What we know:
This protein folds into 3 domains: 2-63, Roll (SH3 type barrels), CATH 2.30.30; 66-124, CATH 2.40.50.140; 128-185, CATH 2.40.50.140. Helices cover 2% and strands 56% of the residues. It contains 1 helix and 16 strands. The chain has one helix at residues 95-98, and strands at 2-3, 12-15, 18-29, 35-43, 49-55, 59-63, 66-76, 79-84, 90-94, 110-116, 119-124, 128-136, 150-155, 160-164, 172-176, 181-185. The protein has a 6-stranded antiparallel sheet, with no helix packed on it. Strands 9-8-7-10-11 form a 5-stranded antiparallel sheet. It has a 5-stranded antiparallel sheet with strand order 14-13-12-15-16, with no helix packed on it.
Amino acid sequence: MITAMKLQVWGVVKIGNELLLVLKKEIHRWGRWATNIKTRMKNLLAWNTTDRVFDSEEKMDDIILERSKFEFLYQSGDTFYFMDNTTYEQIELNEDDVGDAVNFMTPGLVVDIQRYEWKLVWVILPAQVKLLITECEPWVKGNTADGKITKEAILETGYAIKVPWFVESGEYVIINTESWEYSERAK
């Protein structure tokens, strides 16, 4: 058990039947030493976000999620197949479970899968992934004159991103999976 005052951003707590990830925490002190903790929390089972206010001494269960490395093997329809790197156990996840991570996953990618009591909580991608650009408009001299210094490119996963004008189709690029943006050309 921890108190609301000791909540950590990116920490997970259990309140009732809800498993909540702390996204934001603000401490508000009032007169006569009264303190409230304002938080923004994401329910990891229902995938909704709520704002909650706690008394600083309110208690809740601190949760440690089980985290394992899994390799993405392949996709068949809406089902994604992963293999645990240590036990070689294979699991199947549907597209709803994988969420937006599907935009950056290619076979062979190692991801972290977090579980609570053997129930999937979420798929965590590496901070950066290397992906092939399959389509993008060619660069034409003078395009930057109108201030257009980026163009749209389609990745091998089918996801569209903005890339600098000098990046061409058939090149590998590094994508930041936290901001979903182009980071650099792959070397």
